[in-house]
Amino acid sequence: MVTAAFYDRSAAALYHRPVNPVYLLLEVSATIFFIGAALAAARRGRLPFLELVSAAIFGILLEEGDQLIYGTYHYADAWVLVIDRAPLVIGLSWAIIIAGAMRITDALGVRRRYAPFVDALLAISLDLAFDAIAIRIGLWTWIGVDASQGWFGVPWGNFYAWLFVTLGFSLMTRWVREVATRQQAREWLQLAVPLPAFAILSAAILPFHFLQPVVDPADGGGGVLFVLTLLIFLAVAGWGAFGPGRDVPDGQRTAILDLRLAFVTRVAMQGFFLVALVWMGLALQLPVLFGVAVLFLAAELPLAALVRARLASAGAGTAAPEAEPDPAVAMSPRWER
């Protein structure tokens, strides 16, 4: 369990504690991204804005609940804005990650029944790239797992849980979208989504909790269970993204994030941690971790190209969707809608 010593939040302690520039940079940057996302969502209507707000609430609930119930990790004291045990920026980051994944999935034309699986894969690709780097910076600490266990010090159960974190929130949010089209007042149901989403996650953790000590009892173990689960997600997501019967690529009117912001935030997150790994001089010491981080960052380019091709195809075939420009050139000031 996490002891109270890790969370001395008294006014005197906070007043005299020096501000760590790395943490401040992360908190300010994530807040700016979140504000940009909120403005973009609000322009589209009430439901996209509620989705983003509920995603942030879910992120805080997730972090607070996980630490209270499971006690498998704790955050560093250097975070400035903290709600009990959970840094506010983590909740905002969860919102941006999930919202960005859902936006990209919609732009790919994935049908609702398969979309949560695609969302989950897009989210886990970020965590596989940066979680093991984040613990080396000291942003958070996994309890009872050393750097040689799990995935470079990150327990495999964390990645297993990430799949269901995104799947649960996406599943419930997309259901609310559907019912809200029939009765607009039901949009407010979105604010309740964090609770059933957390329940889905908790239920999904149970099989891993009971099987991991049998299959792989080592601290941080469970890699086989994660890989098997990942393969199931890949199969379903692959069918949804490349199989027959896809929807028309769109989602702009109901998007939480602009498509360009979805890609920019993903690249920014991965780029920050990759630079940090090099800056700490660990790229050569941990070549596999460095290679995976580079691979996932590079994968954003073909993903953007696929989205561009889907949107272009939809624009050529029908006038209904609002096709968006190339997300691969999202940073360009010549971006046009």
> In percent, how helical is the residue content?
55-70%
Strand content: under 5%
Arithmetic mean pLDDT: 86
Radius of gyration: 20 Å
How do the helices and strands follow one another from N- to C-terminus? Answer: HHHEEEHHEHHHHHH
Description:
With 337 residues, this protein is mainly α. It contains eleven helices and four strands, in the order αααβββααβαααααα. It has helices at 11-16, 21-44, 46-69, 88-107, 115-137, 156-182, 194-215, 223-242, 259-279, 287-298, 300-317, and strands at 73-75, 82-83, 86-87, 140-142. The strands form two sheets. The chain has a two-stranded antiparallel ribbon. Strands 2-3 form a two-stranded antiparallel ribbon. α5 packs across α8 (223-242) and α6 runs antiparallel to α7 (194-215). It is globular and about 50 Å long. The termini are far apart.
Q: Secondary-structure blueprint of this entry?
A:
Elements: H1 11-16, H2 21-44, H3 46-69, E1 73-75, E2 82-83, E3 86-87, H4 88-107, H5 115-137, E4 140-142, H6 156-182, H7 194-215, H8 223-242, H9 259-279, H10 287-298, H11 300-317
Antiparallel strand pairs: 1-4, 2-3
Helix pairs in contact: 2-3, 2-4, 3-4, 3-6, 3-7, 4-5, 4-9, 5-6, 5-8, 5-9, 5-10, 6-7, 6-8, 9-10
Features:
337 residues, mainly alpha, two-stranded antiparallel ribbon, two-stranded antiparallel sheet, globular, disordered N terminus, disordered C terminus
Short description:
By secondary structure, the protein is an all-alpha fold.
